UniProtKB/TrEMBL annotation:
One Pfam short name: MFS_1
Gene Ontology molecular function terms on file: nitrate transmembrane transporter activity
GO terms of biological process kind: nitrate assimilation
Gene3D superfamilies recorded: MFS general substrate transporter like domains (1.20.1250.20)
Record's bilayer topology term: Multi-pass membrane protein
Name assigned to this protein: MFS transporter, NNP family, nitrate/nitrite transporter
UniProt domain Major facilitator superfamily (MFS) profile: residue ranges: 24-419
Residue stretches spanning the membrane: 27-47, 59-78, 90-108, 114-133, 154-178, 184-203, 241-262, 268-287, 308-327, 333-355, 367-386, 392-413
Cellular localisation: Membrane
Keyword list, A-Z: Membrane, Nitrate assimilation, Transmembrane, Transmembrane helix
Family the UniProt entry places it in: Belongs to the major facilitator superfamily. Nitrate/nitrite porter (TC 2.A.1.8) family.
InterPro entries, per database record: MFS, MFS_dom, MFS_trans_sf, NO3_transporter
Signal peptide: none
Organism of provenance: Pedobacter rhizosphaerae
Amino acid sequence: MTSNKLEPLEKLNVFSFKGTQMRTFHITWLTFFVCFFGWFGLAPLMPSIRADLGLSKSQVGNTIIAAVSATIFARLIIGKLCDTFGPRKTYTGLLLVGAVPVMLVGLAESYTTFLLFRLAIGVIGASFVITQFHTSMMFGPKIKGTANAVAGGWGNLGGGITNMLMPVIFSVIVGFGYTNAQAWRYAMVFPGVLLLVMAWLYFRYTKDTPAGNFDEIDRAKKTSSKTDWSLLADWRIWSLALAYAVCFGMEITFDGIAALHFTDTFSLSQSSAGFLAGIFGFMNLFARALGGIAADKVSQKYGMRGKGLLLAGLLIFEGIGIILFAYSGSLTMAIVSMLGFALFLKMANGTTYAITPFINEKNAGMVSGIVGAGGNVGGMLFGFLFKSESITYVEAFQYIGYVVIAVAALVLITRFTTKGSTEDEEVLDTPLVAQS
């Protein structure tokens, strides 16, 4: 009989830092949090960057889409790397590589060079896949959804904090006598240094699994040599990728255009619009975790089928909320409907990754990467709607709302039960990491 120290935990105590499992949990969500400073650090500085480089509206839109697009491919690759080398080495390598363009983006002197740096920085977005993969390694099946949702939600908070802190760093640099054109360049050194610090912490203080690193246990030998490409024919994976495209994809899209929408539609000041947009992001403090907790509770009684029905229901309400937001005739109605669809959207994020780890445990990293990439595909496609000169923001929200409901219908008819199980059978008996 093995010690619990070598097994995934069956309880999540967020106030505990004891043991490999909880130490890894806290380091991985904090690392994901820091990655947002590198990934989105340029976003709140774009007014100064636009003026410095003379960027047009279309060019600004292209740089945003480029950052999201690069993440799509990075997430697909990073999932396989997690399966092969383990999350510890993969995360450390990603942080070291990602820190380079973040610190050097200040060397950009033209639209083209800035666009290329944005593409390179977008690779950091793959950090989400490693965070979810690593958290799945540390917790047992009954609590895995909750742990993934909490780690993902707290990490996503980095997006909101970044929008608040980077302008402060920019202002401090200007206060020392530097110009705006110089300040945005120097400001990006800060997140680059943070990424290097987290690379050291991750390599030094985490383990791939509770039983040890991949090069110390049998799992590495079983998973590193061969990928089961037949998983690409599994509709459940693509159903989850579509679901994540319309929940997380909508989240990163809304983060980028919310302030502009509030400013243009309701004539708010930039600071007021930014505050309202910030509320949307701060709901990650609890909403994503709530989705994971609900999914774990539902699964105890209704199994994977229950999780699928929960996800479909959340997406339906998200779609309805987005449509109501589009038709809002007053600021009050817009705020209420935004809070409503934000709750269901972020809960859907958590529920999606309460299902993902159980789809194919032998290739969990690759499955996580495909589903995660789906979120960025959604963000990229939605971004084109808001970039279009012929479609208003209101119309774009309407179209997205209908798309979300359509995807909910597809999720509703997807059977997430594993092969050989009955429809109502509990399928959470096999943890992601075999207990020895």
